[in-house]
Amino acid sequence: MGKISFSRKSLGIPYTLFLVLFVVAPLLVLIYYAFTNGQGQFTFANLVGFFTNPNTLGTLFYSVAVAATTTAVCLLLAYPTAYILAKSKLKAKSVIVMTFIMPMWINFSLRITALKEILTLIEGNLAYYPFLNAVIGMTYDFLPFMILPIYNTIVKLDESLLEAARDLGANETEAFLKVTLPLSVPGIVSGIAMVFLPAMTNYVVLDMLYNSTYIMGSLIGGYFAAYNWNGGSMIALILLAIICLFTLLTRGAEEENSRGGALL
């Protein structure tokens, strides 16, 4: 029997088929519904309607506010935690890092239900604090995604750079601000992307904490539940464009920082 050989291009066929079936094809369907009406006729009415409807614009701004606040809170909590873990000399460091990941192994519904019970005991009626509870719920859910990339970046930093900064007369604060912080920006950018983008659409957390219709994900779901596939597809397409733009901006910032290096 002859030998069967596979080229590298052949090995890429399954991945190509996956992309076509589960990425390209759904995206084309989304574009089709976004730029057609209920009769299948081409129209820009859905696009115009998005920017003229106060409900959709208000939902977009509210979603951005929740996502930005959640990202800021996660960053304020995650950076000191990641820095302390990365710089500690504890032998059980990996075990401590694992404790931040372990909650993600618990069922999502169970975690949010437990959080809801705790918040109810503290606050009473959750509906009185919708924005606060949205930020708390999102932070609780996404905090590990901010800690891990920052930790991985700091723990890999070359200690000789800090030693060089100290030899040049920098104290601990100056060494942190001019060496550690700039070189940890790629981890910060990755963490921001991993928190900000999902926080704009993860309406499940808010629906489990209180009945919410303010996040973009729930608005899209409402359109599709009402069989308005055209309006829902346009909102989803615009949200996808915003996510792509944000990804490009964060990637550009990360590449620019990696070229610049530390500010000695």
Automatic annotation (TrEMBL):
This protein's record includes keyword Transmembrane helix: yes
Keywords: Cell membrane, Membrane, Transmembrane, Transmembrane helix, Transport
Chief place of localization: membrane
Coiled coil: none
Keyword presence, DNA-binding: no
GO cellular component terms, semicolon-separated: plasma membrane
Membrane topology: Multi-pass membrane protein
ABC transmembrane type-1 domain residues: 60-250
Transmembrane segment boundaries: 12-35, 60-83, 95-114, 126-154, 175-197, 234-253
GO biological process: transmembrane transport
InterPro entries with a match to the protein in the record: MetI-like, MetI-like_sf
Location(s), subcellular: Cell membrane
PANTHER family registered for this protein in UniProt: INNER MEMBRANE ABC TRANSPORTER PERMEASE PROTEIN YDCU-RELATED, INNER MEMBRANE ABC TRANSPORTER PERMEASE PROTEIN YDCU-RELATED-RELATED
Family, as annotated: Belongs to the binding-protein-dependent transport system permease family. CysTW subfamily.
Protein name (database record): ABC transporter permease
Organism: Fusibacillus kribbianus
